[in-house]
User: Fold this.
Amino acid sequence: MNKLLLLFLLLACPPLLLAQDIDPVSSGSTAAPGKADAKDQEEELFIFDEDEILVVSDPLEPVNRGIFWFNDKLYFYLLKPLARGYRWLAPEPIRIGVQNFFSNLATPIRLVNSGLQLKFVDAGNELTRFAVNSTLGIGGLFDPAKEHFNIRKKDEDTGQTLGHYGLGPGIYIVLPALGPSNIRDGIGLLADSYMDLTRYAWENRDYYGAKTFDVINDLSIDKDTYEGITKDALDPYLFIRDAYMQYRQNKVEN
Assistant:
């Protein structure tokens, strides 16, 4: 597949960036090892503080809306159908194991950024999780660190680190296929990609193929989050823009 297309498919849908590293919620199925109930996290993602007015700088709104339209069509007509087909082929425990595997490879992102924010306990927990899950968890396919030792993942990334040290989000942007972002988080995404061990486990086209597979796998577990949050929104673009910016602000502050 063309390298540029594969890059576009990387993390290729709005809900993936809106719900970064949020474990899926399964309905009517047996819980698999390493799987977390993320209902509370998903609900927290779209809670707005009525006492806080969020000002979003969006001078590129006409362009952003065009890209948002493209991402929306990409999601509904390509990515989601592929994910549903894959869901039919692969049992849920296998898909949860794949998700755990890629999350384990992303450990350096969380570890390094926890350390840079002087959250040394969280950094130590990430190092411990990586050691335990890479060994007892059979290369990260399972999550015994959480299941047996109650050592939970703490999501940190470069965008949060930059915000922690006072860098503002900058203008809101919608990235082709990557979804909602801003200048700070866009820089953070680039830096994070070089800390992800997936880049070094696979090279060149194989790397983009692996990341695309990761995206399809995540979508196969997702229970139509994107559809749910946009179905009743009067203006889905504005709803997702404001939800994303407040979500990221809360991540920086916490």
About this structure: Confidence is low (pLDDT under 50) at residues 1-48. The CA atoms of residues 45 and 247 lie 6 Å apart. The two ends are 40 Å apart (CA to CA). The chain is about 60% helix and 5% strand.
